[in-house]
Structures are given as structure tokens and as C-alpha cells.
Amino acid sequence: MLAVASIGALAFAFIAATVIHLDRAFPAAFWYDLLASQGKIQTAILYYSALPRLAMALAAGACLGFVSAVMQVVLRNPIAEPATLGVSSGASLALTLASLLTPSLLENGRDMIGIAGASTAMLIVMALATRQNLSPIRLMLGGLIVSLLCGTMNALIVLFHHDNLQGMFIWNAGSLVQNDWHATHRLLIQISAATVLIAILLRPLAILQLQDENARGLGLPLAKIRLLVLGASVFLSAAVTSAVGVIGFVGLAGATLARAAGARRLKHRLLLSALIGALILATTDQGLQLLTGSFGEIPAGSLTALLGAPLMLWLLPHLASTPEISMSERRETDHRIWPAIALCVGLLLILAYIALALTNDMSHWRFAFGPDFWATVPWRWPRSLTAVSAGFMLGIAGVMSQRLTGNPLASPEVLGVSSGVGLGALVTVLAFAQPDRTIQMMSGAAGAILTMAFIFILARRSAFSPEKLLLAGLAISTLFSSTFTFLLTTGDPRVHTLLVWMAGSISNVSEHDATVAFGFALFTAAMLPLLGRWLAILPLGMSSARAIGVSGARSNTVLLIAISICTAIPTMLVGPLSFVGLMSPHIVRMIGPRRPIQQAFTAGLVSAIILLAADVFGRALLFPYEIPAGLMASMVGAPYFLFSMRRTRSR
Predict the structure, then answer these.
(1) Which residue of 139, 181, 269, 445 sits 20 to 30 Å from the alpha carbon of 567, by its own alpha carbon?
(2) Domain assignment present for 129
(3) 435 located within any domain
(4) How confident is the model over 592-634, as pLDDT tens digits?
């Protein structure tokens, strides 16, 4: 009942905000002029700007909520949304490239460019999963990697062309400003066509909620149904992205709140998700126009999380949990564990030597030997040791996150601690003219502690439900990213200084930072064996854990604190490192180790290798310029992971 009342309150807020805004901006006389076809300026603004903007907000929000609900059914994952399959990132990258290389195409071909980018990303994901009958876990992992890769390339372009992309910042923040009805009509036609296809496939889509074996037993062609439904979903997502830019969280919030409201039948859940998505986006936009005036240029997409996230966090304890997600489809033996660990250690030692010895004398690259080598060591060892230590902690945190939640899309960043550190860093940049390292670290630590405390309180209220932990973390992460995106649109030069930190830069670490990181890495390695039993049992489910005497509250609390520490320290020292903690567990599962301690230790080594290699390549690739290690880690690790996914069978 609480969820239903919240949706009713949201509908009332939308109606009230819309009526008040339109009454203030366009008194009754202008509506009479509109009906009488009078040619006054204010009447034209009402007809060609205000009303199309309202219609666009409702249509785009409904589309995003609908698509997210469909994707959650097809992928069997409660945190699936358009960004999961790389759709939004592909469209955004294509439009960013077009704005730099061929800006003239954007005037009339924005839709086609966005749809082409989204379709290309989706085709790559489909190609990765075709050998496994388009299995949901392969689709999700492939989509997440493609999304990270596109996002990395986009961030790299922004770093080097920041001043030329101010208009793209506004578009990426989700701008609903309209000048006529053309874009709205086009989006409504696109929505109608794709929705009809999904409606025809509604019954097969309902069967997809079963396990694959049961669906096949009913004669359902799984690959064809998933291909058609996902194709229609990608088309809808790309159409919205092309029309109004990147609007995150609306779809996830709409689908989640629809389930919280008790919608059990699929068609009811899809309709309710669309309604809630439309209400969230339109209410946010109307509220912004009330605060800033009809001609305010604050992109609504950047602030939808300010309305949707608190609402979702409030209702999460009342959300019924979905069945646990299986992270693997078959078991593997550990016969390759020791050769894998030996190979990782060998690669790490080789990379460490390269990181310390590789130098450039302004004419060519060479390896330093003898006195030259020892002269470079004091300059290089802090960043190399920090890269290894941060990667090691994030790899272990990634394994713990995925085992704690039972979700292959879980990562240390998804639990929200990194965003807490980011909020602390953002406050520091805005509050202090020239904040020093100590102030930045203290602010980041304060943000991490507050976020961890909030997640812990919510987890206790939700009986440590893995799904609710992930959704709460995503809500907090979206709040941070939305705030940061909005500040980027203002052109504030102070925010630009955070771009390098957001990309994960190791260039400014000190000897003290490296020592702290190494100390925490040693602590993590020593702590890991004590958590082995919990990490092995919790993926079986809480009922199984309780049956063999494991305390769910105690084990979840300790693991949550461990994940928070292993995430907060690297984030404070280096910045967010999205790829490392997410993908290293999957890379390790492809190598062979399955037992939790061996898997976590190997994942730590793999992450350390990726981050150290990223630091070396980032320094050398565009010398004398430097690519931040966080971006470079995605560029180094993502292609390898995609190649490995293509070669290996579903796990």
C-alpha cells in the first residue's frame, strides 16, 4: 500500500507542478488565443515549446520505464536497464564523435547517428552471445563491457576536447527543450512501432521468466524471442537517447517501483513501469521549470535522480525480492589454479620492472640500467606500488561483491562507496579554493563513511537482501553521477579539475599514499582467509546458509564493511576504477579457479596486472601527455575480456 500511495503522490505532484507552471507562464488568455489560432508570440511559445516539451517528457519517461521492465524480464536481472547492454553508451559515443568530426550531420541526422551507434553496440553484444543461445548472463556481461568501453572512449574524448563539447554536456545530461512538435511526433511513431512488436510477443515474453530448460520444454525458440524483444528495446532506447540525450535511472526506478507496488502479471508491470517512468521525468522537468522559469536551461535528465532515487530508497524495504541469480551455469575444477597464479605473479613482476625502468629521454624510449635505473626508481615506485595495491584490493572486493549479492553485474562501485568518496571530493572542490591533499582525503573518507553507514542501515532494514543492496547502491551512484553531470553543464572550471580524478589518475600519488595503499593491501590479503567460509556459503542463498549455522546478519555485515574498505581506499587515492573490480572476477572464472579464496586472490593479481599495465601504457602511448590509468584499464582489459568471451563457452 505504501508503494501505491507513493505513486499516487507522485501523480499528484506532477499534476500540481504542471498546472502551477503553465498557469504562471501562460495565463488563461494565452490558451484562449491558442484555441482561436491567434498569432501572438507567447501563444507560439506555448504551442511550439511548452506543450511539446511536456509531451516529450511523458513519452521519453514512459519509454524508458517500459524498456527497463522488458530488459529485466529478458535478462532475468533486477538491475537491468538500457545502459546494461551498452545501448546508451553506444549512442552517446556515436553522437560525440559526430559532433567533433562531422557536426553538420547532427542538424538532420541526429536520430540516425544515435540509432546507428546503439545498434553497433548491440550487434557486438549479440555476436558475443550467439554461441550460447543468447544466454542472459552472456548478454549482460557483454553489454556491460561494451558500455564501459564506449564510456571510456567518450571520457577520453572529453578530456582532450573539453572546451569543444559544452553542447554535448547539456545533451548528455538529458535536455528536454523543444522548438516544435517534429521530434515528439517522430518519437511517438517510433514508440508505437516497437511497442506493437513487443505486445505481439507478450506471451512468449512471459514464458521467458522461467528458466531456459522450462521454456525450451514448452517449445519456445529462446534465441529468436530474445533477439526480437531486445532488438525492439534497443530501437526504443536509441530513439529516446537521440531525441533528448542520456537520461539515466528513470527506467530502473520505474521498473523497480512497479514491482514494489505489487504488479505481478507482466502486462500490468510493463504498463505501470511506463506510467511511473513518465511521471518521474515529467514531474522533474515541470518542477525545474517552476524553479528556474520557462526559459531555464537546466537539463532535466541530470536531476531525475534527485526525485527518483530518494523515492526508490524509501520504498526498497517494502520491495519483494526476486529469486536469486545464478552466477554460473556449471561448475569447474581448480586444476589450473597454481599455474594461473604463477603466471599472474610472473606477469606482475615483468610489468613492475617495465614500469620502473621504461623511460624517455625526449628522443626515444629505452630501458634504464645501472645508475640510471636506480635514479628513476624513487620517481616511479610510488605510482607503481599504488597501482598494484589498488588493483589487488579492487579485485578482491569485486569477488566479494558478486558472491555477497549473487549477481554477476555487482561490483564495488555498484554498492555506492565510490560515489560517497566522489561526493566528498566534489564538495571539497566547490567549498575550497585550493584544497590540499589532506582535505581531499578527509572529505573522501567522510563521504565513504556516511555512504557505508547509510547502506548498512538500509541493509539491516531489508534483512540484507542482495537485490536491495544493489538497488540502493545504484541509487546513490546515480545521485552522484547526476549531480556531477549537471555541474558539468554549468561550465564551472572547478568541476573540470575533477574530470582527471574521475578517470582514475595515479600521476599525483605520493610515497605516503603508496605506503598506505600497500599496507591496506597486505591487510586485505591477511583478512581474506578468515572470510572464506562465508564467501563459499552465501552464494547458495540465505536459507541454505542458515541451515548450516551461518549467521546472515553477522556475515553480511562483515563482508559489507570489508568491501567498503577495499573500495574506499583505492578510490580516495586514485579515483573511481569502474572496470577493474567488475571484470576481474569474470576473467578469473574463465582461467579456472572456482573456490572463493583462490578466486579472490587470483582476481586481485589480475586486477593488479591490469592497473599496472594501464599505468605503463597510459604514460607511454601519447607521451608527453598521459592517459589516466582508470580509462586505460578499460581500454586494456575490455578487449581482452571480449575476446575471451568469444572463445570460451558459457560458464
Answers:
(1) 139
(2) yes
(3) no
(4) 667 888 888 888 998 898 888 888 888 887 777 777 777 777 7
Give the Cβ contact number of residue 460 at 10 Å. Answer: 13
Look up residue 133 and give its DSSP letter.
Answer: T
Q: In this predicted model, which residue has the larger pLDDT, 437 or 399?
A: 399
Helical H runs in 76-131? 87-101, 106-129
Q: What is the CATH number of the domain that holds 624?
A: 1.10.3470.10
Residues 6+ apart with CB under 8 A from 375: 368
What is the domain extent for residue 210?
9-318
Asked whether 73 and 209 are in contact (CB, 8 A), the reply is yes
Establish how many alpha carbons lie within 13 A of residue 350's alpha carbon, considering only the half-sphere containing its beta carbon. 9
Residue 477 contacts by C-beta under 8 Å, 6 or more apart in sequence?
Answer: 413, 414, 416, 418, 419
- Rounded CA gap, 485 and 247, in Å? 11
pLDDT in tens, 440-485: 777 877 887 788 777 777 767 766 676 677 777 767 776 666 676 6
Pair 267, 393 in one domain: no
* Residue 610, domain member (yes or no): yes
Residue 510, C-alpha cell as written in the block: 605520493
pLDDT tens digits for range 295-346 = 445 665 556 656 656 665 665 565 555 544 444 444 444 556 677 778 888 8
Number of domains in the chain: 2
Torsions phi, psi for 366 (to 5 deg): -155, 165
- Taking alpha carbons only, the member of 606, 623, 420 closest to residue 507 is 623
Locus of grid cell 525545474: 288
